[in-house]
Amino acid sequence: MDGAEKAAYLLLCLGEKTTSEVFKELKKEEVLIISNYMKGIEHVPAELAKQAVQHYRKTQEEYAGIFVDGKDFVNNALTSTGNNEWTESILEDLNSDFDEKPLETISMMEPRMVAGLLQNEHPQTVALILSTQKAEHTGKILLYLPEDLRSDLIYRIARIEKVSPEIIHQIEEALQGDIGGFVKKDQQHVGGVDKVVEILTRLEKGTEQKILNAIEEIDQQTAEKIRNLMFTFDDLLLIDNIGMQKILREVKSETLTLALKTASESIKEKIFQNISEGAADIISEDLEALGPVRLSDVEQAQRSIVRIALRLEEEGQLILTGGGKETLV
Questions:
Q1: pTM of the entire predicted model
Q2: Distance (Å, rounded) from C-alpha 41 to C-alpha 1?
Q3: What CA–CA distance (Å, rounded) separates 2 from 109?
Q4: Which residues does 314 contact at the CB level (< 8 Å), separation at least 6?
Q5: Domains, the chain
Q6: DSSP 3-state helix, strand, coil percentages of the chain (rounded to 5)?
Q7: Packing angle, helices 147-159 and 135-143, rounded to 10
Q8: If DSSP codes are grouped into helix, strand and coil, which group holds residue 163?
Q9: How many CB atoms lie within 10 A of CB 38?
Q10: DSSP string spanning 227-249?
Q11: pLDDT, mean of residues 182-199
Q12: How is residue 162 annotated by DSSP?
């Protein structure tokens, strides 16, 4: 159990009167999180009640001391100085720092709880909210949302670039009762393909491919951008020789020559090690004879090889590492 769930069981054991007094000392979002756990509990097993009380006593000993609300303490201390102009200047700077953390409340909530709060919201609203969170937190929240919704949300996040203060304010008001407010003075960069890559690389193996395949049916270009960031041509260096040979068997000689036009010496060496000496000599000669070519053509050739690598991984024929992929140990 997480901390909020343990607190829920403990308070149920202590009774309504004690719970009421405890709630008076908590923040609104804390009461909301604990209450959502409590309302789903119908029975507290004796052993669980015992564990909750024992954990509380142990925690009480470990964290003995004074608990304060640092933000309120600072505000009250500054206000008490009597220097209004100086105090306002300090508070303005402090509060601007706080404003740089949109949806701070959600970032502290359990993924399952966030998913429950967002399940009835419009997908675009959910995508915006998730795009402001850390990738790991977003990935965990997605696991508690319906599978058919995940790819839609990932696609929407990939399409987000900037959000106006007006939209932030509208969402803030719509979710005020459940989540709490968040404010941002200027337009904020959220979402985007980079954010999606961070999220997908933290999902369980296989889940990211299902999501990407679903996005590809909607928008092939966006899916391609995501795939290219998750595994790049330079990441071919990290593939073992057997995997590299499987890839190269499916690459046409002219495509490989074009792809190597701007490749590093280490990439060339890696590829030449995994083809026959005769083929390596021919490609080397073709590279020397190759005149100026468009960079876009070279990049297209490299992407085609990356696509082969991604397909072979999806088929279980090789394991990719590097870029957005998980490192093997």
A1: 0.38
A2: 13
A3: 10
A4: 209
A5: 3-62 (no CATH), 70-99 (no CATH), 104-207 (1.10.220.30), 240-329 (1.10.220.30)
A6: 65, 0, 30
A7: 150
A8: strand
A9: 16
A10: HHHHS-GGGGGGS-HHHHHHHHT
A11: 56
A12: E
- Cβ pair 301, 258 in contact under 8 A: yes
Where in 165-219 does DSSP place strands (E)? 188-189
User: Quick one: 229 exposed, middle or buried, by C-beta within 10 A (0-12, 13-18, 19+)?
Assistant: middle
Distance from C-alpha of 287 to C-alpha of 258, rounded to nearest angstrom: 8
| Residue 165, number of CB atoms within 10 A of its CB | 14
**The token pair that represents 290 in the structure block:** 């190759």
- Which secondary structure element, helix H or strand E, spans residue 56, and what is its range? helix 46-62
Sign of the alpha-carbon dihedral angle for 159, 198, 229, 308: negative
Q: What is the three-class DSSP state of 113?
A: helix
Helix (H, G, I), strand (E, B) or coil at 322: strand
Q: What is the pLDDT of residue 4?
A: 77
Neighbours of 240 (CB within 10 A): 13
Identity at 44, one-letter amino acid code: V
Reported residue count of the chain is 329
What are the tens digits of pLDDT across the range 293-310? 888 888 888 888 988 887
SS3 (DSSP) at 116: helix
Write the DSSP assignment of 59-91 as a string of letters.
HHHHT-S----HHHHHHHHHHTTS-HHHHHHHH
pLDDT in tens, 71-120: 667 777 777 777 776 777 676 656 544 444 445 667 777 788 788 878 77
